[in-house]
Amino acid sequence: MRIGVYPGTFDPITNGHIDIIRRASKMVDRLLIGAAQNPGKNPMFSLEERTEMVCDEIDAIQETNKKQGHHCDIEVTSFGNLLMHFAEQNDAQFIIRGLRAVSDFEYEFQMVGMNARLNPNIETVFLMSSERHQFISSRLVKEIAVLGGEIKEFVSPRVEARMMTAIGQKK
Ligand code: COA
């Protein structure tokens, strides 16, 4: 049984993340999406909200997978410990990460190196972001939304609604 972990802060989950989840779910039998606490990023949404938003996107992915004859158990959970410990606890053999531009490479390269030191038996697998999603970033989506710009192209209608509510509450 191939088990993969797809970690992220998901503040909020974007179409770029969803694209990676769709593709990763075709590579493993069980995909565990881990929403990281990551207090250093000073998230807009609480860990519970971020996890819930990811959960809300999974049904549509499962539905498409079913139609296409792919079977993958997709689960969403949060974690506050080391990514490697989280992966070990879930018997994962793979960590899956999306890679966008050259600028992602240095950060990811460092992280993969450190993680490999912690547990060389768990491989990090990178999926290149599809061309449409190369430039999406949660930080920029938040900035656009806060300044009144259109974010429909970058997030699902569910996430957009949540962001509008969150921003409305802050004003
Ligand atoms: N398409 C478009 N955008 C994408 C994308 C894709 N396929 N994949 C990621 N992104 C964007 C996100 O929107 C996000 O943008 P932002 O930085 O503006 O918010 C950025 O790329 C990265 O976000 P995300 O994928 O959510 O990952 P992250 O870098 O926030 O997550 C963890 C990092 C959670 C993996 C890392 O902090 C971690 O492992 N934490 C646990 C603690 C630990 O083990 N630390 C030691 C590590 S060696």
Structure, explained:
The protein has 171 residues and is α/β, with parallel strands linked by helices. 46% of the residues lie in helices and 19% in strands. Strands 3-2-1-4-5 form a 5-stranded parallel β-sheet, sandwiched between helices. The protein is globular and about 45 Å long.
The description of the largest β-sheet is: 5 strands, parallel
Inertia-based shape = globular
- Strand and helix order: EHEHEHEHEHH
| Largest sheet: spatial strand order | 3-2-1-4-5
The average pLDDT is: 95
Number of helices: 6
Please give the number of β-strands. 5
Query: What is the alpha-carbon Rg in Å?
Result: 16 Å
Overall structural class, as computed from helix and strand content, comes to alpha/beta
- How far apart the termini lie comes to 48 Å
DSSP helix fraction = 40-55%
Strand content: 15-25%
Low-confidence stretches: none
The ligands bound in this entry are: coenzyme A
What are the defining features of this structure?
171 residues, alpha/beta, five-stranded parallel beta sheet, 6 helices, globular, binds coenzyme A
